[in-house]
Amino acid sequence: MVVASLAFVEFLVIILARDIYLNGLHIYTLGASSPNLAIPENYIVPVRIILEVDSISIFMAIIAATVSLAAAIYSLSFMKGETGQNRFYTLLLLLVAGMFGMVLTGDLFNLFVFLEIASIAGAALVAFRTKFADTAEGGLKYIVISTVAALMVLFAIGIFYAQYNLLNIGALAHVMQYTMLDKIALVLLAIAFMMKLASVPLHMWCPDTYSVAPAGITIMLVVASYACLYALFRTCFTLYGVSPDMVTVGWIVITLGMLTMFVGVTMAVFQTDIKRLMAYHCISQTGYMLLGIGVGLAVLNRPEALNTYGIAAMDGGIFHIINNALYKGLLFLTAGALFYRTGTRDLNRMGGLAHKMKWTTIFYIIGALSISGIPPFNGFASKLLIYESVYRFNPILAIVAMITSILTLASFTKAFYSAFMGAELPEYQEVKEVPKSMIAGMAVLAAGIIFFSLFPGLIVDWLAHPATEALINQGAYINGIIGGG
Amino acid sequence: MSILGLSYSPWSPIFWLLASVVVMIMAYFFRRRGQKKYKKDTEQTKIFLCGEEVPEAKQRHIRAHNVYWGFFETMKEYYDANIKAHTGIINDYIIWFLVLIAISAIILFIVGIV
């Protein structure tokens, strides 16, 4: 039932994406006589809950729908022996609802509410398997950092409401005065979202949480963190847009992106717990996205630089989000498959599993080559876009990004050798391939990787570039509300 | 659809795959011209360890913590500092959060004045 409903959601999201690609931004006003009626009669500002969906929103919704579907299929077997299945799938759907709400809403307060919904559901799911000693700690860490981040978001919303009497993102962007209070709100929002997306030095909760969550939930938490990345983009590009502070914010994002990339990957190489290794890679890959978008922010005030390489850097950063959701999702699922059969996450205790788990091995290879940026996989295409464009902005940044990619390959080679290669170990003589639903969950993401690898031009032209345009074109988003949709 | 337009040169995975197929065919051709005396399931296929007895599978598998040992020794100071910062204590995570908010606010304030 859960899988069928998520498959239907995926179908609806694809239809909506097609509609938005052809007809542009959509708004939906809840409770209004007409969905397009953003500002009711006798009012001068929007007051209702309004969903505002443009190319970047639907881009994130596609990621959320696809990964949630794969996670639900995978969890059918993975969670089979656990008690409280009803509660597990209820929380899973709540997490999906939270993610969709975050990426589709046009209202800042709703964004906060959905952020809380996703955080509470996420923390409960992390701590769901109470039979393991470390899950409660992982859940606690997730809820504490989420609550602190959400409180800062609420504080920033309070600052806006006190000044402008508004909560709608488009309407706020329309009247933004860039006061000192607005700058404080910008810092609070940006750093709170960076905490949630595990940017260095706010990343330390991420391995503690991702490593103990059920594998299907880990990949949904990755997407939930990308919903926060979306919120960061929405704040910087749509809410604040072209302002003198954006160059500074751009450089802050670039600096944190570089730190995130390098510290993430160097810590990943060191790990011997396969899920902690992958969690650090998740942090590292977020650095690429921050780098691409940070370059776009830094040149937002310079139209020539923006057109020459800024847009390409943003295309690369956004393309990397969907690529990473696919291959990082796949890799976490393969780690879950190894844990499912061996009962350990410790790479020191694994070896020779390729003899027994052929499908898992193939999926791991696809994911590992893709995340390492090896051609012809999709990770190579998005990284190439980032390297080329960032090189024109500052060559040193591009070189560090390439070194990070090399270390990524080294890290996944270590994990591959340790877990899959070598002779069959006596303790794993009885190990066999994981159940079919887990293979099917991994196959959904692997199929996505192969499709994206073969048709990168299609994905950039239809998904990533329209998303970039939606972020840059602040006026269109504002007009969607002020102009009545 | 397959070609990704870049500023320096386009990227096409289809052309890359076609080129790979050509290289693989060439590699196969050269391999076929090689040694013909190879026999499966004979002494030829066993592991050769300088005449020493080959240890059990469990003993000869190099474990994860030994991989890249030289790299970690070279980067010891970097890793010592980094691991020290990763305390696992949630209070420290929140301190980092507050410090970063303060630094970012100061930077924006200074830039605003200048």
What are its keywords?
heterodimer; A: 485 residues; mainly alpha; 18 helices; 2 strands; globular; B: 114 residues; 5 helices
Task: Walk me through the topology.
The complex is a heterodimer of chains A (485) and B (114).
Chain A: H1 2-23, E1 26-29, E2 50-53, H2 55-78, H3 85-104, H4 108-126, H5 135-164, H6 169-175, H7 180-196, H8 205-210, H9 215-240, H10 245-270, H11 274-298, H12 303-342, H13 358-371, H14 378-393, H15 395-420, H16 436-454, H17 456-472, H18 474-482
Antiparallel strand pairs in A: 1-2
Chain B: H1 13-32, H2 57-60, H3 69-74, H4 76-85, H5 90-113
What does the model show?
The complex is a heterodimer of chains A (485) and B (114). With 485 residues, chain A is mostly helical. Chain A contains 18 helices and two strands. Chain A is 75% helix and 2% strand. Chain A starts with a helix and ends with a helix. The model of chain A has no long low-confidence stretch (mean pLDDT 92). In chain B, 56% of the residues lie in helices and 0% in strands. Classes of the chains: A mainly alpha (485), B mainly alpha (114).
Work out the oligomeric state of the chains in this entry. heterodimer
On the 0 to 100 scale, the average pLDDT of chain B is: 86
Tally of helical segments of chain A: 18
| Overall tally of structural domains of chain A | 1
Mean pLDDT over all positions of chain A: 92
- Span from first to last CA of chain A? 35 Å
Question: Beta-sheet strand percentage of chain B?
Answer: under 5%
Please indicate the count of domains of chain B.
1
In short:
Chain A is mainly alpha-helical and about 475 residues long. Chain A has 18 helices and two strands. Chain A starts with a helix and ends with a helix.
